[in-house]
């Protein structure tokens, strides 16, 4: 499982707070981005929680 943050991100930072191992803010664009590698199994629950909590629906599973 991988995640991708699309252009509808509003930069609220919730995903970074929920799962900082997978999501981080891009200081230049002001929006979030995810690690490009497959999510380690141990992080899948918190990454999914971040996806479900995103107020913009900007986190896609790929
Ligand atoms: Fe962007 Fe959603 Fe993360 Fe907020 S929770 S920073 S809107 S991807």
Number of helices, counting only DSSP H or I runs of 4 residues or more: 2
Radius of gyration: 10 Å
- CATH topology value: Alpha-Beta Plaits
Helix content: 10-25%
The mean pLDDT is 96
What is the rounded distance between the termini?
6 Å
Summarize the structure in words.
The structure is a single chain. The chain has 62 residues and is an alpha+beta fold. 24% of the residues lie in helices and 19% in strands. It has 2 helices and 4 strands. The strands form 2 sheets. The protein has a two-stranded antiparallel sheet with strand order 1-4. It has a two-stranded antiparallel ribbon with strand order 2-3. The chain is globular, with a radius of gyration of 10 Å. It binds iron/sulfur cluster. Iron/sulfur cluster binds next to helix 1.
Brief overview, please?
The protein is α+β, with helices and mostly antiparallel strands and 62 residues long. It has helices spanning 14-18, 44-53; strands at 3-5, 23-25, 32-34, 59-61. The protein has a single domain (3-61), classed as 2-Layer Sandwich (Alpha-Beta Plaits), CATH 3.30.70.
Question: Which characteristics define this entry?
Answer:
alpha+beta, two-stranded antiparallel ribbon, two-stranded antiparallel sheet, 2 helices, 4 strands, globular, iron ion binding, metal-binding
């Amino acid at each position: 499982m991988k995640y991708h943050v699309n252009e509808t991100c509003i930069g609220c930072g919730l995903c970074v707070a929920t799962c900082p191992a997978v999501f981080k803010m891009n200081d230049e664009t002001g929006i979030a981005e995810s690690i490009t590698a497959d999510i380690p199994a141990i992080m899948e629950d918190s990454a999914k929680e971040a996806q479900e909590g995103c107020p913009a629906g900007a986190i896609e599973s790929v």
